[in-house]
Amino acid sequence: TVAARRILVTGGxxxxxxxxxxxxIGHTPHSVLVVDKLTYAGNLDSLAPVADDPRYxxxxxxxxxxxxxxxxxxxFRPDIVMHLAAExxxxxxxxxxxxxxxxxVVGTFTLLQAALGFWRSLTxxxxxxxxxxxxxxxxxxxxxxxxGFFAETTAYSPNSPYSASKASSDHLVNAWRHTYQLxxxxxxxxxxxxxxxxxEKLIPLTIINALEGKPLPVYGAGANIRDWLFVEDHxxxxxTVATQGAVGQSYCxxxxxxxxxxxxxxxICALVDELAPDPAIGRRAGLITFVTDRPGHDLRYAxxxxxxxxxxxxxxxxxxESGLRQTVEWYLENRAWWDRIRSGVYRGERLGVVA
Length: 355
Ligand code: NAD
Known about the structure:
By secondary structure, the chain is α/β, with parallel strands linked by helices. It has helices at residues 15-27, 66-76, 90-95, 98-121, 126-129, 161-180, 202-212, 231-244, 261-275, 306-312, 320-333, 335-342, and strands at 6-10, 31-36, 56-60, 80-83, 131-137, 184-189, 192-193, 216-219, 225-227, 229-230, 250-253, 258-260, 288-291. It is built from twelve helices and 13 strands. The strands form four sheets. Strands 3-2-1-4-5-6-11 form a seven-stranded parallel beta sheet, with helices on both faces. It has a two-stranded parallel ribbon with strand order 7-10. It has a two-stranded parallel sheet with strand order 8-13.
């Protein structure tokens, strides 16, 4: 039996955070407090499946608010912090980097300070058992050429305002462990996809536009390669890292699913043609439209997940094919979820390019 822990999840109303919370409440004895500002990316609808569970609670709060973070730590008294709150969309970081510095850098600093103050107030054995798990991205490593993989030993070389802000936060986390002995762990994951993914990202955007017969925008020639992981596999990996990972370590998380963006879009077209045929639209691949490439677009990301497999026994359950099929089915069955997001919030923004 697993001892019940108290887990503070920042960003728990986001795409990955909500998957983590659904995993915790659905498959463990632990309790959760979600701390989330509910920016455009935060959505309580994604937590509806756990909303009535007595082990789940929610507070709307900005991680940059230091007094409030101190209060939350003192009141909830977490055993584990899983820090996912972040600005996460690369295109938005190019158009407006300020929020990325504020939330990802200053917010992580604020949370580390609150965690440190709380941790110092603990006595043994709680102090040794405490974990601050910082959730990060493989984008901190920069771009790969045709060969090789990112691993825990790869040097940091971030290229976008987003990845630079995440790299900064990783460095802060390491400094707080090294300097103040706060028991931290970092994980760096490749691109996630799956249910409840905000429709500005490649996979949900393509599914929705394909369903509606709208153009399917692909950056450049669609040759950029990402290593895709089903979000529920990531959520299980994160829980494994938070509860079994070793202090001071980092873990690279990925599923060996390297695909070019064009291959991803073609795979979605085939699935939507099969699951939602529409004679008025015809074959969805005909909707693919190449658009001007993202500035500074990293060519290739790929993860070597050997360490988490060997040391913690985590392996993904889904292949890209099985995960993508589940994802397309989810968007077909949950139109209300994405219709609500699209109504108004997005008009006039980058998504407008393809609307
Ligand atoms: P998301 O954008 O879907 O969710 C982010 C959440 O953080 C939202 O609920 C938002 O309301 C909240 N938030 C933003 N600013 C906040 C603030 N100042 N205070 C409190 N809450 C705030 O992001 P995601 O895709 O779920 O990513 C979660 C984490 O995982 C991020 O740290 C991201 O860098 C990392 N990550 C994402 C991916 C991916 O493919 N999506 C891959 C690897 C790592």
